[in-house]
Automatic annotation (TrEMBL):
Keywords: Hydrolase. SUPFAM superfamilies: Thioesterase/thiol ester dehydrase-isomerase. It comes from Salinimonas sediminis. It comes from the Bacteria. This is Acyl-CoA thioesterase. Belongs to the 4-hydroxybenzoyl-CoA thioesterase family. GO terms for molecular function: fatty acyl-CoA hydrolase activity. InterPro entries: 4-hydroxybenzoyl-CoA_TE, HotDog_dom_sf. The keyword ATP-binding does not apply.
Length: 136
């Protein structure tokens, strides 16, 4: 089921995303990680229609391993690390100059806003999520 293929997106570090020392600010990673999850969002809602949005964020955690700097692109790799009945966990890594600088985990829940309850992830979507499963 798994082929460990991540979704990848590369960002050019903007000057406004840095501090006086040229380091990327800690809140920027949360934004980059969210943008890196867009392909996963499209598995549920291909057109990203917010009126038909089926996901909520239950938690996220970011670990910083190395400093990130202005002037060098950053690549965010996005994997799925766990698939449950109604939730799944996303593992993300931020790489700069071939060094893993940060990791993040996010738990997303498939959610029915009409009933205000979690809902089972459709089997077809589970299969697509599985294509990006990174096993420990």
């Amino acid at each position: 089921m798994s082929n460990n293929t991540p979704f990848e997106v590369t960002f050019d570090v903007r000057f406004c995303e840095t501090d006086a020392l040229g380091h990327v600010g800690n809140t920027v990673l949360v934004q980059w990680f969210e943008a890196g999850r867009d392909p996963l969002f499209r598995l549920f809602t291909p057109d990203l229609d917010l009126k038909n949005w089926p996901l909520i964020l239950a938690s996220y955690h970011v670990d910083f391993h190395q400093q990130l700097f202005f002037g060098q692109p950053v690549t965010v790799k996005t994997y799925v690390s766990r698939i449950g009945n109604s939730s799944f966990e996303v593992l993300q890594e931020a790489w700069q100059s071939e060094v893993k600088c940060a990791t993040g985990t996010t738990t997303l829940v498939h959610f029915d806003f009409a009933t205000q309850r979690s809902a089972a992830i459709p089997d077809m979507v589970k299969a697509m999520l599985g294509e990006h499963l990174k096993e420990s």
